[in-house]
Each structure stands twice: as C-alpha cells, then as structure tokens.
Amino acid sequence: MTILYNLFFLLFITFVFLFLFRVVLIKTGLIFTVKKKWRLFEDCFHVYQLFKVPKFNESMQRNQLYHKVFVYLNSLTSVEDSDFTNLFTGKKPNEILLRLDPNQIIEDDFLGAKILWINEDNNLVLKIRKADKRRVLRPYLQHIHTISDDLDEKKRDLKLYVNVVGHGDDHKGRWRCVPFTHPSTFETIAMESDVKNKVKSDLESFLKAKQYYHRLGRVWKRSYLLYGPSGTGKSSFIAALANFLSYDVYDIDLSKVSDDSDLKLLLLQSTAKSVIVIEDLDRYLSEKSTAVSLSGILNFMDGMLTSSCSEERVMVFTMNGKDHVDQAVLRPGRIDVHIHFPLCDFTAFKTLANSYLGLKDHKLFPQVEEIFQNGSSLSPAEIGELMIANRNSPSRALKSVIHALQTDGDGRGALNIGRRSTENGPRKLSGEMGEGSGVFGKEGANAVKEFKKLYGLLRVKSSRKSQSFDLNGDRKEGG
Ligand SMILES: Nc1ncnc2c1ncn2[C@@H]1O[C@H](COP(=O)(O)OP(=O)(O)OP(=O)(O)O)[C@@H](O)[C@H]1O
Ligand SMILES: [Mg+2]
C-alpha cells in the first residue's frame, strides 16, 4: 500500500514539475531559446546549400528576381514573428508596412522543407538543405513568382474608365481614365454578411477557375446583376467589388454608344482583370428607340468577341427592378449571380448606426426595431444621410430616423434625398424577385433557399429554362 502511495505521489510531483516547467518555458520566452539551440544542434547533421539572389546583375541593372523575393519575404508572417524588423508607413492612410532589416534571417516552409533567407547587403541568400533542394527549389521559386505577382497586382493604383462619344470612324481612345479611389469595401456596405461572404467566395473561386473555363471553351467571365431601389448600395457594391479584386472599372454609358459594333469595340478596348459596368440597364432596355439593340446587348453580355476576352473579366449590371426585363437578358450564363438590394431593415440600420454614429446599441433601438417590424420604405442612403447630418448627436440622429420612418420619409424637410419615385414605381417592401430566380439578398430568407432549391432542380434537369446559377456548384467544378 505504501509503495502504491509513493508511486502515486511521485507521479503527482512529476506532473506538477512538468506543468510548472512548461509554464516557465512559455511565459519567460525561454522556449524560443530552447528551440533555437535545438535547431543549431539539428543543423549539425544536415548539409546546406546557399543560393544568392543579387539586387543587380553584371551590367548593374535591377534583378527582377530580387524584387520578387523581397516582396514575397515581406509578406510572410515570419517577418512579423521574427526577433526584430522595420516598420514603415505605407501609401494608404494608417497603413503600416513591415520591412526586412539588413542581416535579418527569415524562415519559410515549403512542401515540408525548411528554407532560410538571409537579407545581406544587396543580396538575398537562400539556404536550403541539400536533401530538399532537388524536390523543392524549382516549385518554390515558381511559388515566389506567383505570390509576388499577385501582391504587386494588388498594390497598383486602380483606374476608372468612362466612355466618351466617338467622332466619325475614330474609335480609338474612346475610354477616358481617372484614378479610381472609391473607398467602399464589403465591410462598409450594410448587407447580410452571408451574402457578402457568398459573393467573396464566388469571386475567389472564379479567379481560380481559369483552366476550367478554358477547358470548357467558355469565356472567362462572371456576370452579376445588382437590382433594387435607388440608394440601396448597388454602385457602392460595384466599387467594393473592384477594390476587393483590385480590378480597374470600365463604366459604360450606353447613351454615348453609337451602335452595336461600337459597343463591341468598347469591350475590345478594355483590358483584362477589369470590372465592366452597365448601370440602369432596365431603364435603357425600356426606352423605345435606342442606338444599341437588344441583340447587341446580349452579344456584349456573352462576351463572344475575340481572344482578348479570354482574360478574366467581371461584368456587373444594375437595375431598379427586373420584372419587365426580357428573360433572355437574365438567363444563366448571361447573368451568373443575382443580388437583391432591399430597402433598409433593422439589421442594415444597426450596421449603418455603427459605422455612421459609432453606436453599437442605444436605448432608442427597440423603438426603431418595432417600426421596422411594421415595414419601412427608406433606403440605406436616406437613413445614412440623416445620420451624417446629425452625427454630432446620436440621439437626435436616431430620433430623426424614427420620425422619417414613421412619416415614410416625408418629414425629412431639407434633407429630402430625392427618391426616384418615377423610376422605381411605388416602393415595395418585399422585393421584386422574379419567379424562380436565384437571388442573393435580403428578399427574405427564402431567397437563398429558393435559389438552392432551384439549382437542385437545375442539376437534375440541366437543360430547362431558369434564371439562376448556384455558386456552390460552380465552385466544386471550377476549383
Ligand atoms: N447598403 C448600404 N450600406 C452602406 N451605405 C449605403 C448602402 N446603400 C446606400 N448607401 C450609401 O448611400 C449612398 C448611395 O448609394 P449607392 O449610390 O450605392 O446606391 P445605388 O443603389 O447605386 O442607387 P441608384 O440606384 O440611385 O444608383 C452612398 O453614399 C452609400 O454610401
Ligand atoms: Mg447607383
């Protein structure tokens, strides 16, 4: 019995000791020293090979590989975790950049191999185990190329192109370009986070699907329809989308397009990695005589032009409502994703109150919620404007929102943010989801469900007419 007792006591003491030892190791940072010593010990059993990437070549020209490796290394989390590194301000406000320090050593992992980089004067030196070199070096350098190209792409300044009226046969230079600096991001837009996440992952899977689209012989493009009343964030969403993708924006004003072939030329003159936008398409299509025909627009939406369209493009069309739009315009393939932009509801209101007034909660919120439950006919733009005008007094801002909601916006006085009542028709609280259409948005939780249900049917009877496309399905195939 005594032996058993002693054994148990010994086990307990060992456990306590190990626990305390672990705490001391972690809390004091001793663990890093132990790891370092262990690595040095381990290194004694390995042969390393060094590769130097000089900043300049023999003719003192810049070595592009040096730039790429530098960009890549500065993006690694190990820079952040290293013992020391440099901090600089970036181009954007509040941006802080991490930069390698001379003689800093950075560790990276690739395909299970440990790789070290040493930042010497005007050289970056790669240190790799000889045993790993043959297997890892080439794909690793390829990986650096790809990542640094992506990072460079993300850093460049975006441009907004607008089309101007052409003169005679001179179609050259029809696009006019200005810097695109719209600050909108998916985070600043008040809409269901589920919808935002779906759009983001849809875009990401689209970007990865180049080979897939090519194999199918399809133009590598993705088309979005944003529809909903005025002031619900459609244009802001386009800006957010362009910022998310770091793509230039080509905003096509159809009233400045002379005919179908002119429209084709505009598309041909756009560059890859761009968002092509046509706003208020429903209004244009409903006009009696237009310079561009319906078939011209359909061909444009198909992007069936030349090989120059084989590079990725995202097309975005906006409409106030799609009820009266020709079904051919909305069919899958022409429009891949339908996103509904509803009038403001309580969830959107809370997002706006948080971003415009810094309010997470307020004693007037329950009252606002109650009014929203009875319905509302104000857009996020209208509510946002009321908040901006009263931003110094959150209570006053909320009271004015309540008043505007109760009076259906009529009491907004000087702050009458023109509703395009003639364009939108009478405002509807429930959206205008067409029959059987697949929609992302707040048109009731049913919208997404319906969308999935519909695609369920679509997968079975893939040949039948329908108006939507399922992101999940595409992701599986494309990824
Ligand atoms: N959902 C939203 N979240 C945050 N801000 C919004 C939202 N909707 C509108 N706004 C704000 O309202 C203003 C107008 O929005 P926007 O131009 O994007 O609306 P729209 O749907 O394009 O309207 P229209 O159909 O009249 O062109 C913008 O300043 C934007 O910041
Ligand atoms: Mg707009």
From TrEMBL:
Residue intervals passing through the bilayer: 6-32
Pfam families, sorted: AAA (PF00004), AAA_assoc (PF14363), AAA_lid_At3g28540 (PF25568)
Gene3D superfamilies for the chain: 6.10.280.40, P-loop containing nucleotide triphosphate hydrolases (3.40.50.300)
One GO BP: response to stress
This protein's UniProt keywords: ATP-binding, Hydrolase, Magnesium, Membrane, Nucleotide-binding, Transmembrane, Transmembrane helix
InterPro entries referenced in this protein's UniProt entry, alphabetically: AAA+_ATPase (IPR003593), AAA_N_dom (IPR025753), At3g28540-like_C (IPR058017), ATPase_AAA_core (IPR003959), Mitochondrial_chaperone_BCS1 (IPR050747), P-loop_NTPase (IPR027417)
Ranges of Basic and acidic residues composition bias in the record: 420-430
Record field: catalytic activity: ATP + H2O = ADP + phosphate + H(+)
Start and end residues of each AAA+ ATPase domain: 220-345
Region entry Disordered, spans: 414-436
Cofactor(s) the protein needs: Mg(2+)
Keyword Magnesium (UniProt): yes
GO molecular function, a single term: ATP binding
PANTHER family assigned to the protein according to its UniProt record, in alphabetical order: BCS1 AAA-TYPE ATPASE
Family: Belongs to the AAA ATPase family. BCS1 subfamily.
Name used for this protein in its record: AAA+ ATPase domain-containing protein
Organism of provenance: Gossypium schwendimanii
Organism lineage string: Eukaryota, Viridiplantae, Streptophyta, Embryophyta, Tracheophyta
